[in-house]
Amino acid sequence: MSNDPRAALQTLVSAFEEHLAAAANRRGDDDPAVDGAYLAIADAFDAYEEALYEAYDEVTPLTVFAEEEDDDLDDEDDDEDSDEELLEDNEMLDDDLVDEEDYEDLGEDGAARARR
């Protein structure tokens, strides 16, 4: 199925405009109009990306992220594990990288003490 990239682009722009209007007229956190407009942007973007690729063998630098509601509880555990792995992998917190002379000493009350 061959799509015209210009028509797909116009559909994407319209989806953005509809999302803006829905967001401006939001009636609560779970407004179905905003949710629907959100999904319309994702669908229109996918169609545009496909049409652009078919016509010109080109893609955009953008990505649509899908929300996975089933993994919400697991994500909290993953975030903690990822942070620990990041610190282990990067080792950017090296004492040699910190020049202690650039920092003032703090007294017990948290006030800065003057250097002598």
Tell me what the structure shows.
The protein contains three helices and no strands. By secondary structure, the protein is mainly alpha-helical. Helix 1 runs antiparallel to helix 2. The longest helix is centred in the middle third of the chain and has 25 residues. 6% of the residues are buried. The mean pLDDT is 77.
Taken from the alpha-carbon principal axes, the silhouette is flat
Percent of residues in beta strands?
Answer: under 5%
The counted number of beta strands is 0
What is the string of helix and strand elements?
Answer: HHH
- Give the helix tally: 3
Termini gap? 77 Å
Low-confidence stretches: none
Question: Quick gist of this model?
Answer:
This protein is mainly alpha-helical. It has helices at residues 5-24, 32-56, 72-90. The termini are far apart.
Topology:
Elements lengths: L4 H20 L7 H25 L15 H19 L26
Helix pairs in contact: 1-2
List keywords for this structure.
mainly alpha, 116 residues
